[in-house]
Amino acid sequence: MKPNRPNLIEIGLTALKLGCIGFGGIAGMVGLMESELVTKRQWLTREYYLDVVGTANIIPGPNSVEILMHCAKEKGGRAGLVVGGILYIVPAMLICLLYAYLYRRYGHLPAVEPFLYGIRPATTAIIASAVFRLSKGIVKRFDIAILSLLVFIGSLYGLNDVALLFGAGMMGAFYPNRKRLMVWLPFPFLFIDNTSSKLFLLFLKIGAILYGSGYVLFAYMDDALVQHNHWLTRQQLTDAISVGQITPGPILSSATFAGYLINGVWGGVLSTIAIFLPSFFISLFLYRLLHFINKHELLRSFLDVVNAASVALIAAVAIQMIGGFISQWQSVVILITSLVLVLFTKVNTAMLIVLGSGIGYLLTLV
User: Fold this and answer.
1) Residue 97 above 90 pLDDT?
2) Taking the model in full, what pTM does it have?
3) Worst-scoring range by mean pLDDT, 147-151, 188-192, 244-248, 349-353?
4) pLDDT one-digit tens code per residue, 79-88
5) Which residue, 125, 169, 190, 280, could crosslink 302 as a Cys pair with Cβ 3.0–4.6 Å?
């Protein structure tokens, strides 16, 4: 499809909006994107969106960025992929640069907790509604239902999400074809001594091979920035990860904060470019991969199970988030109100996040 200017403008503004309100981690972003790109804008069908989500969960890189860029490619071609990816990342980068500046100047992070208080239950409501919509029609066989339930339970018990997805997909796809095998090839990486170049290549490597949650990102960054190069203390790294979690957009924006502390504004920008750059190429690969999968029965069966398992993981995240604030009546009020609004009205997701933040701040004063 040849992109046109109106499409690119819509893609850019939509990506910018999602980058500004994208709280709740990957589960929150999947819910927001489903609401914005599938239900509201109809860039792609819900079934195809599930394929994108499922495939993004089993390839390296930041899932939310890859999902957004693939959806943008469906709307505006390769130009749409680039425009959408850049404008989705920029808000988190700018916020993290600001946080890093204030952190270096004052020695602590800005107090934003009161405003996040209401965002969490509002985001949880969006996630829960996404689970409800995405789960329709994905359980095509009894074994898929059983595997999804096992993934849900395994996630609640803290098992690795990627391992759960691969395990479920393999069992669903290979059970009727036990003699088939799959082969993985490692990636080589080179490093040079210059600090800026080394910083760039280090985050480029992380962006290319990262699987899993923020805890995995912490492990990679701890090994490279704290233990080997001694650029940051562990406390500074912990604060960097915290900033990635409290700001909208992908948690990989922690790289912006860390890069600023290491080498100023240029270090922050360079680290951001490096950690997200592989996603632009991986997203192009994702498009080809989905086309290839749909032509092969075995891989299609694998992806069907992964899709159902992905929704089970999102449901587990919603349960865990609810467990984190169920004892606080204020959060429960915001959650129930948000659920009613998101399920029975056409409330704008951005407005829901803003309302949740404002109400949460007011309730913390009670």
Assistant:
1) yes
2) 0.71
3) 188-192
4) 999 999 999 9
5) 169
